[in-house]
Specification:
By secondary structure, the chain is mainly α. It has eleven helices and four strands; from the N terminus they run H-H-H-H-E-H-E-H-H-H-H-E-H-E-H. The two termini are about 30 Å apart. It is found in: Membrane.
Length: about 300
């Protein structure tokens, strides 16, 4: 039955990802903000809902390696797997905003996360710092986009849905993403544990992959619909939310203890993959994630998974 649930989870996530893109694009048209901003905020937070519920539940149930591994593994998968796979499907143009503000903020949050866990735990006051930074990021991103587009009428599509319908689509998609991920993660975890692997490995690979499927579904659908800004914005925003939102809220509720292998290996891979993304989206203007870069990212992810299972 676990294999059937695995398939059902994938189907729910794919359908929900489509709804989330539709709602996000409609909102960007109504509020005259770019689809990049919608991707970095609304869509990214919606697709990160599974990570929040999975990490919080794992921490409360005494599985810190799954709680922390889920976020680190998901951030690695978002860049190396999701962006890699999406770029293979369709090369992605990169807006300068992704480099000049969003990527540095993501990298800064990742480095701060590394500094915070050097003592092998993430405490409540560090979680408060994370949440405050997340609020600052959201407010600044939306304000900046509104200011830049205040007098810009041409270039925005007519919204296909009203604001009410767009919000309903996003809410329905978020619920679908949560339940789809829950079904997929539960079945994947059962299958993995049957093979006798550790919680760290389960959290970093299967659970992280399961909670990254919403990003994969949403980014792939967005690329297919030619909404390229949502594809890349979704990934960068999701990684920011995973660290500042998911771990911020979780550590405020309960301190998270981190095992040494995660500090000495997995988070360093996350930082390395994040920096690799920066190199691949250069130059600052007219950058592009070509198909060969997608294959490179995908290869990096497969090597990482192999190392996690064999170390």
């Amino acid at each position: 039955m676990d294999y059937l649930y695995l398939f059902i989870g994938f189907v729910i996530l794919l359908y929900s990802g489509n709804l989330l893109v539709k709602g996000g694009v409609a909102l960007s048209s109504h509020f005259k903000i770019s689809t990049l901003v919608v991707g970095v905020t609304v869509v990214a937070f919606g697709t990160s809902a599974p990570e929040l519920f999975v990490s919080l539940g794992a921490a409360l149930h005494g599985s810190p390696d799954i709680a922390i591994g889920n976020v680190i593994g998901s951030n690695i998968a978002n860049i190396a797997l999701v962006l890699g796979f999406t770029a293979i499907l369709m090369p992605l143009p990169v807006r300068s905003n992704s480099i000049k503000f969003d990527w540095p903020f993501m990298m800064g949050a990742s480095l701060l996360f590394y500094v915070f866990i050097l003592n092998q735990k993430l405490e409540y006051y560090e979680g408060i710092v994370f949440v405050i930074l997340l609020i600052v990021f959201m407010v600044w991103t939306v304000w900046k986009s509104r200011k830049e587009n205040r007098d810009l009428i041409i270039g925005f599509k007519t919204a296909e849905h009203s604001i009410f319908v767009a919000v309903l689509l996003i809410l329905a998609a978020s619920v679908g993403l949560y339940f789809g991920a829950d079904i997929l993660v539960g079945s994947a975890k059962n299958i993995a544990l049957d093979f006798g692997v550790s919680e760290r490995v389960v959290g970093l690979t299967l659970v992280a992959f399961g909670t990254s499927v919403p990003e994969l579904a949403t980014s792939a659908v967005a690329a297919y619909k030619k909404e390229m800004d949502i594809s890349i914005g979704n990934i960068i925003g999701s990684n920011i939310f995973n660290i500042l939102g998911v771990l911020g809220v979780t550590s405020i509720i309960k301190n998270i203890f981190i095992s040494q292998p995660i500090i000495s290996f997995d988070i360093l891979i996350m930082l390395g993959v994040s920096f690799l993304l920066f190199l691949l989206i250069l130059p600052l203007n007219n950058g592009k994630l070509h198909r060969w870069k997608g294959f490179l990212l995908l290869a990096v992810y497969l090597i990482y998974v192999y190392l996690v299972f064999t170390k």
